[in-house]
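Table 4 source record.
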Amino acid sequence: MKINITETVLRDGQQSLVATRMHREDFESILESVDNAGYYSVECWGGATFDACIRFLDEDPWERLRLLKSKLKKTKTQMLLRGQNLLGYRHYPDDIVRKFIRLSIENGIDIIRIFDALNDYRNIEVSVEETLLRGGHAQGCIVYTTSPIHNLNKYIELGKSLEKMGVNSICIKDMAGIMGPQEAYDLIKALKDVVRIPVHLHTHSTTGLGPITYLKAIEAGCDGIDTSISAFSGGTSLPATETMNYALKQLGYTTGLKVDLLKNINDFFRPVKAKFLESGELDPYVMGTETDALVYQIPGGMLSNLISQLKAQNGAHRLDEVLAEVPRVRKDLGYPPLVTPMSQMVGVQAATNVLLGERYKRVSTEVKSYLRGEYGKAPGAIDKQLSRKILGDEKPVTGRFADTLRPAFEITKYKLNDPFISDEDVLTYILFPQIAEKFFKIRDEKKTVRASYNVHLSKALDNEDSKGKDNSAMELARREIRLIGVDESTAALVIAIMCEQLKTSLEELHFKAIKALD
């Protein structure tokens, strides 16, 4: 039996450990090896990658996707989508959901893993329908959690609903790593008895259960699992790709993975990990095993972000108090699974309760929207006292909230009033308007610099070509200057101008430019 392996180092692996801070330089040159390693798919987009690209990394997420697709030619590209939330933190109108999925597939995505944080499948119907319409693989999710109201029968019914909806496969999404081996065996076996489509399992190493849980799930008939290359595995990330591959082959399963290429990939990411450790972006706390997560159920990405947020408020020493508050907030909100956006909402509210010294003294806009029913139907009963405090006599929404939203894509595009703006940019703006405005401004400034650079470079190269000189030194100088921290476009502009003004050889210019900018 073959077990399909999805590599997550480019999305969930790095999101869980370093809050999605990988630049394209951190992975671009290893993509060919990843493509040839024999993976079923590579999860490389969605989740927090879109947000992090424009907020922290100064990268266009759509350009990143096109780059990934240009390198991953043999392997399916995969993304994570939050149903009606897309990649944001609120529900969007159906026209925006459909547009986003269409452009995601056109720009290079093959598999879209679609979930709703509350397992309210009214919120994924449009996403699934559009994915199938555009020729993509729609993988519907059962978000796994434990609580007094969640049980095996409930999950089986969810699986049946997904198959009836028409998804190509099902993923059980255990984002906090709280699923034990027996729970995995029982759930996978029960699902395989009632559905005919493939069933995948996603879990994390947070509690140390991950590898054991995977093996029992596979024993029960699981078709595929998610892993992360070992340099970015373990802790709040996922079980190691190499470890699971070794164990599965020893047990008589096949994976299609090439051991020599897995080693090359891991060797590449070792110094990347070291860089994040040195900068402090990889906190040793998230690299260990935390069995307390069996109680507070915080997923890896949420924990790493929570630590970053507490540090920013000089409250890192109160992490244990916040973790203890999380399950209390979750109970008050009707036991929602802790997956984006609910994980952020519950985590932020727990931190606010602790740091302000009073529970619900301040309630986030998102939690208020949740209480109004704008995220869907809560799994359990919401605390009446809390609801009354926030909503008063206001009646929450009981229907599908997206049905109350008007189409917004064309209106937004018209308001932006830019004939050169792409549909992809319009979606970026819709998802993260304030961040997008800043990102577009910086990007446009770079384009101006680059255009100026191209003019000077063209003149400089013409001068050098007329002398029969070797132009390789120009590229060498650009690379060297980029290594010392100078923006590539600015550095190249300096080189080009110097070349034109000094009328000297590129070999001599290489050393002069570096010396001038050092």
